[in-house]
Amino acid sequence: MEKNKIKVVELFAGVGGFRLGLEKAGNYEVVWSNQWEPSTKAQHASWVYEARFGKENHSNENIETVIEKNFEDIPDHDLLVGGFPCQDYSVATTLKNSKGVVGKKGILWWSIYNIINKKERKPKYLFFENVDRLLKSPASQRGRDFALMLESLNQLGYAVEWRVINAADYGMPQRRRRVFFLGYHKSTKAYQRIKNQSKEEWISKTGVIANAFPIQENLNTGFNQFKLDNDVTVISDEFNKGGKKSLFENTGIMIGGEVKTMKTYPKYDGKRIVLRDIVLNKKVEDEFYIDNGDEEKWNYLKGAKKEIRKSKSGHEYHYAEGGMVFPDALNKPSRTIITGEGGKSPSRFKHVIETKYGLRRLTPVELEKLNMFPENHTKLDGISDTKRAFFMGNALVVGVIENIGKELYKKVNL
Question: Which superfamily does 6-268+397-412 belong to?
Answer without folding.
Answer: Vaccinia Virus protein VP39 (3.40.50.150)
